[in-house]
Write a structure and sequence with these properties.
The protein is α/β, with parallel strands linked by helices. The protein has 9 helices and 11 strands. The relative contact order is 0.16. It binds NADP nicotinamide-adenine-dinucleotide phosphate.
Length: 269
């Protein structure tokens, strides 16, 4: 269909990669035109449709984004920090919108993405669901309304395969809480607690990460005062939530100028 946004999915055999391919296919505003995987992955060289549901779709999974990037408007990328940085170089050169869900990016990676966003739009979010982005806004407002008599703790739980902690979403919530208090998270973040930690420092923001089973993602922001506790919580039951949000970001990003954007920009929040 004319006017459709042409999309490539990176890391298409992954938990999120498969959801992203499905979300693109179910949305008639966009068209799935390509898919990548890590060199050596079983899916490389095979028809994507056959890998997904046994029905050929005429798209071969490649291990080099360079071969296909010039034929798309947006790349959906929920992979690894190393792959995401390599992809950012190519999307910047091709002036293609880069939607990044990958978490665990270091400061040097973020600086690289900032530089790449001078050439093409980059939409990066620790979480692409509407609910979590609303939770982020609420967290900032509640943190701004309460003083340091309320201790802020962010508790998250994810499935047993997750490799980084705290989650990208937990950090996003921590940043929102710090912003509400007029500070940077780096200045308020409590180190991980183990052993004799001493008393909790006033004004600090603490993180706890639970891992187990097949939990898609749960986040709770706790404001603990004396004699009362406020708690804001989001539960994700289905990864499609993130995949549909990422597709929405790609449709939006396709029409943006180069720059760094978040899901709050996409949702107009
Ligand atoms: P996963 O199942 O391990 O998927 C990652 C995929 O990327 C794997 O298929 C992996 O292939 C592939 N990959 C690795 N290097 C690659 C390369 N150079 N080129 C192409 N593909 C490559 O992990 P997941 O659960 O889908 O999560 C992926 C990332 O998204 C994580 O950082 C996670 O925290 C994040 N995430 C974000 C959100 C959000 O809303 N922002 C939501 C969920 C997850 P191999 O298996 O062959 O290595």
């Amino acid at each position: 269909m004319a006017g459709q946004t042409k999309i490539i999915v990176a890391g298409v055999s992954g938990r999120m990669g498969q959801m992203l391919a499905q979300a693109v296919r179910e949305n008639d505003q966009c068209l799935l035109v390509g898919a990548t995987e890590r060199a050596g992955n079983d899916w490389v060289g095979r028809d994507l449709g056959e890998c997904l549901d046994g029905k050929p779709m005429g798209i071969t999974v490649v291990d080099d984004l360079l071969d296909i990037v010039s034929d798309c408007h947006a790349l959906l990328d929920f992979t690894t920090p190393k792959a995401t940085i390599a992809n950012a170089e190519l999307t910047a050169q091709a002036r293609v919108a880069h939607v990044i869900g990958t978490t665990g990016l270091r400061d040097a990676d973020l600086a690289y993405l900032s530089a790449a966003s001078r050439h093409a739009p980059i939409i990066r979010a620790g979480n692409f669901s509407l609910g979590v982005n609303l939770l982020t806004m609420l967290t900032q407002k509640v943190a701004a309304a309460l003083n340091e008599d309320f201790d802020i703790e962010i508790v998250e739980m994810h499935h047993r395969h997750k490799v980084d902690a705290p989650s990208g979403t937990a950090l996003m919530l921590g940043e929102a809480a710090a912003e509400g208090r007029g500070a940077a998270l780096a200045d308020l973040r409590d180190p991980a607690r183990e052993g004799i930690t001493g008393e909790r420092q006033r004004g600090h923001i603490g993180f706890s990460a639970m891992r187990g089973g097949d939990v898609v993602g749960e986040h709770e922001v706790v404001f603990a005062g004396l004699g009362e506790r406020i708690s804001l919580k989001h539960i994700a039951n289905d990864r499609m939530l993130f995949a549909r949000g990422a597709v929405k970001a790609a449709l939006w990003g396709h029409h943006q100028k180069p720059g760094e954007y978040s899901m709050l920009d996409v949702l107009g929040l």
